[in-house]
Design brief:
about 300 residues, seven-stranded mixed sheet, about 15% strand
C-alpha cells in the first residue's frame, strides 16, 4: 500500500515537472496560411518567429500617389520584371518624410498581388531572422518582397549584417523569388559623424573616403535601384489635396476654400508633404460630412 502511494506521488511530481519544462521549450512551428492574403508580418512568440497574415492591408492604388511619377514608373517596372520571373533589383527608397515612400510599396503590392506578389513586413530588430524567412519562402511559387520601413542602423547592430547577407548572398545563393524593398530617411542607412571626415584622404586630385565611411556606404550599394523623394512645392501639394478631397466626396465648387485652408494647415505643420495633404483632406471632409446616423435616416 505504501509502495502504491509513493508511486502515485512520484507520478504527480513528474507531471508537475514536465509541465514546467514544457513552458521553457520553444513553441511548435506554426504553419503559414498562404491563402490568407497577400501581406504578412514577421512576428515572435516564445522565442520563435512566424508569419502572421495581415487581415486588412492598406488598399492604396498607384493612381492615388501624385507628384512622384518617375519613382512610380521605375518601381512598377522593376516589380513587373520580378513577378514575371525576369531579373530585377532590390530597391531603396530614401528622402523627405511623408512623400509616399511607404505608400508606393503598398500600392505596388496591390497592383501585382493577383500575379502572385506577396509582401512580408519585417521590423528592424527582427532582421536577424531573415535567413529563416528566406528558408520559408524559397520553396514557394509566389514572388516575395521583404518590406523594411524607416530603416536605419546604429553601429554594430546585428540586423545590419543579416540584411547585407540577404542582399548580396553568402555561400548560399540569394533566393530568386525574393527581393528587399526598404524605405529610409538616410541614403546610407547609418549615422555619419564629424570625426569620420578625418579619415578622408587625397589621392592626386581625388578625395577618397576612409574605411568607416566605405563600410556605411556599402550597405546602400547593395540595393540595385535607388529612388529619391523630395519635398513637394505648393502646386504639387495642392494637387494631392484636390485628389484626396475628391476621393472623400468634396465637390469642385468647394475646392477654392479648401485650398486656402490646406495652405494654412501646411504652414501650421511646417511641411507640404503628401501625408500632410492626406491628413488635411480627412479633417476637411470629415468636418463637413453628415454623421453616419444622419446619413442612414435620409
Amino acid at each position: 500500500m505504501n509502495a502504491k502511494s509513493d508511486l502515485e506521488r512520484l507520478l504527480a511530481r513528474t507531471e508537475i515537472l514536465l509541465a514546467r519544462v514544457e513552458t521553457l521549450l520553444p513553441a511548435p512551428h506554426r504553419p503559414v496560411d498562404w491563402r490568407a492574403g497577400s501581406a504578412f508580418r514577421w512576428r515572435k512568440s516564445g522565442g520563435r518567429g512566424f508569419l502572421q497574415p495581415v487581415a486588412h492591408p492598406h488598399r492604396i492604388r498607384l493612381s492615388d500617389l501624385r507628384g512622384i511619377d518617375r519613382q512610380k514608373e521605375m518601381i512598377e517596372a522593376n516589380t513587373r520584371q520580378f513577378v514575371e520571373g525576369r531579373t530585377a533589383n532590390n530597391v531603396l527608397l530614401t528622402g523627405a518624410r511623408g512623400t509616399g515612400k511607404s505608400s508606393l510599396i503598398k500600392a505596388v503590392l496591390n497592383r501585382f498581388a493577383r500575379q502572385g506578389l506577396r509582401l512580408i513586413e519585417v521590423d528592424k530588430h527582427d532582421l536577424v531572422d531573415l535567413a529563416d524567412i528566406v528558408d520559408l519562402v524559397s520553396v514557394r511559387p509566389e514572388r516575395f518582397i521583404i518590406y523594411c520601413d524607416d530603416l536605419s542602423f546604429e553601429a554594430a547592430e546585428p540586423g545590419y549584417k543579416a540584411l547585407k547577407v540577404v542582399l548580396d548572398g553568402s555561400i548560399a545563393a540569394t533566393s530568386e523569388n525574393l527581393l528587399v524593398y526598404a524605405t529610409s530617411n538616410r541614403r546610407h542607412l547609418m549615422p555619419e559623424f564629424m570625426q569620420e571626415n578625418l579619415e578622408y584622404r587625397n589621392v592626386g586630385e581625388e578625395i577618397h573616403p576612409g574605411e568607416t565611411s566605405e563600410e556605411k556606404i556599402s550597405l546602400s550599394d547593395r540595393f540595385g535601384l535607388w529612388l529619391s523623394f523630395y519635398p513637394f512645392d505648393q502646386d504639387a501639394y495642392l494637387d494631392i489635396v484636390s485628389h484626396w478631397l475628391g476621393e472623400l466626396g468634396v465637390t469642385v465648387r468647394d475646392m477654392k476654400d479648401a485650398h486656402r485652408a490646406a495652405l494654412q494647415w501646411s504652414l501650421a505643420r511646417g511641411s507640404r508633404s503628401g501625408r500632410v495633404a492626406w491628413q488635411f483632406a480627412r479633417d476637411w471632409a470629415g468636418r463637413r460630412a453628415a454623421p453616419p446616423a444622419a446619413r442612414k435616416k435620409r
